[in-house]
Design goal:
Elements (H helix, E strand, L loop, with lengths): L27 H11 L5 H5 L10 H16 L12 H10 L9 H7 L19 H11 L4 E3 H11 L2 H4 L3 H12 L3 E4 L12 E4 L4 H12 L34 H21 L6 H7 L14 H12 L8 H14 L10 H7 L2 H19 L19
Antiparallel strand pairs: 1-3, 2-3
Helix pairs in contact: 1-7, 3-11, 6-7, 10-13, 11-16, 13-14
The structure holds a DNA duplex.
Protein name: Forkhead box protein N2-like
Organism: Astyanax mexicanus
Pfam families: Forkhead
DNA sequence: ACCGCGATAAACAGGC
DNA sequence: CGCCTGTTTATCGCGG
């Protein structure tokens, strides 16, 4: 289909060997994926948040981006000592696959993480407790440009979940299957002009992001919804969401981890508003970036998407009762009804765009405070109060 | 027992 | 021609 580009032919996303090499805080695969896109997608956003990875020009955005990447990378608990690449996720698994059941990936969780029933499970070899949807979501979200080609999604998964490196290749099929069926994901064509690489880029449908995030949190913190702080209503910098703490006490997590996770979410929420290629309302940005959203057949109302949606719909992304949520709900509902409304949101969003900068600022500050309070350190040095650790769990 | 959800397998088409 | 990508259908297991 269309113009394909961006993928460097030389890099093999599925090289399992890549794992363990993520040290530098960069994801080989993701990075490779982003570079090509950097030409188009990464430029998205006021200051090309995505490209900041190498361009130290925009400090704030860079910070945000850096955080974004690193947080996501370390995505979980595990603390500083945890291996940036793989460990954490599995730690999580350990804690979540516990007593608290999660509906989300129950089947997979039980079937996999319990791979070694006896309790002795090789963290690196046990299947992650995340559903493919979430894995894909994480992979995409962690990319600077918020979009990845399937190949890089594979790569991300392989890198963070070594389990798949030894798993039969069927999982790739599942990934593709998910991308296609799950309404949460949208296909975006690569910018015209570049033709290296196959396939399209996939991004998270902005309207479903809260849903996915919610699902992710639920998975990590079964009761997460209770502390979920909607992106749309960021806590004020002066008053970090302390109310978030209580919940995880019942868990084996450390408060700091929790905070980090929360902060990550906040940061994500904030940053994503700047670069998400899918979050472009109207033809404006899309056309501007040479991006073309391949609309999904409205008829396609697969259970996957609806399921995920309904999941969070039942607990509507407690994302605050704001327009944001209304929109989400509306869209989700529409999606459920078989209509893929992607850009029918009129002024609501536009109106929201104004305060974006403010929100972003607040979010960043709040997150920073949170992390700071949590004593989470950042590899960026003391100068930055941002931390990495994302126990999104 | 039923249903929803997620995982998995497989077939197929189209592009590179 | 082989591989990759993307779509679609079917089936199975699990949990509510």
């Amino acid at each position: 289909m269309g113009p394909i580009i961006g993928m460097s032919p030389d890099k093999k996303a599925e090289s399992p060997g890549s794992q363990g090499v993520c040290g530098a805080g960069t994801l080989p695969e993701a990075e490779s994926a982003s570079s090509p896109m950097a030409t188009s997608l990464d430029r998205i956003g006021p200051a090309g948040a995505g490209g900041s990875r190498t361009e130290p020009e925009d400090d704030e955005l860079t910070n945000l981006n850096w955080l974004h990447e690193n947080l996501l990378q370390n995505f979980t608990l595990g603390g500083p000592e945890a291996q940036p690449c793989r460990g954490p996720l599995f730690d999580i698994e350990g804690s979540i696959s516990s007593p608290h059941g999660h509906s989300l990936s129950s089947s997979s969780t039980s079937s996999v993480s319990s791979g070694s029933p006896g309790g002795e499970r090789d963290p690196l070899k046990s299947k992650p407790p995340f559903s493919f949807s979430l894995l894909i979501y994480m992979a995409i979200e962690q990319s600077p440009s918020k979009s990845l080609p399937v190949k890089d999604i594979y790569g991300w998964i392989l890198e963070h979940f070594p389990y798949f490196s030894s798993a039969p290749t069927g999982w790739k099929n599942s990934v593709r299957h998910n991308l296609s069926l799950n309404k949460c994901f949208r296909k975006v064509e690569r910018s015209l002009g570049k033709t290296n690489g196959k396939g399209s880029l996939w991004c998270v449908h902005p309207e479903f992001r809260p849903t996915l995030m919610q699902a992710l949190k639920k998975l990590h913190f079964p009761n997460a919804h209770a502390f979920y702080t909607p992106p749309a209503s960021p806590p004020s910098a002066s008053s970090p969401p302390r109310h978030l703490f209580p919940l995880e006490q019942g868990y084996s997590m450390k408060e700091s981890d929790f905070d980090a996770a929360t902060a990550m979410m906040l940061l994500k929420s904030a940053s994503e508003q700047n670069i998400d290629p899918c979050d472009q309302e109207g033809p404006i940005d899309l056309s501007r970036r040479d991006l073309v959203v391949v609309s999904r057949d409205p008829k396609q109302d697969h259970t996957y998407s609806s399921s995920l949606v309904s999941h969070s719909q039942q607990q509507p992304p407690r994302l605050a009762a704001h327009e944001e949520q209304d929109r989400s709900a509306a869209h989700a509902a529409a999606a459920l009804s078989g209509h893929t409304v992607i850009r029918s949101l009129p002024s609501a969003k536009r109106a929201r765009r104004d305060p974006r900068a403010e929100l972003d600022e607040e979010l960043k500050e709040a997150a920073g405070s949170l992390l700071h309070l949590a004593g989470i350190r950042t590899s960026l040095g003391a100068s930055r109060r941002k931390s990495r650790k994302l126990n999104s769990k």
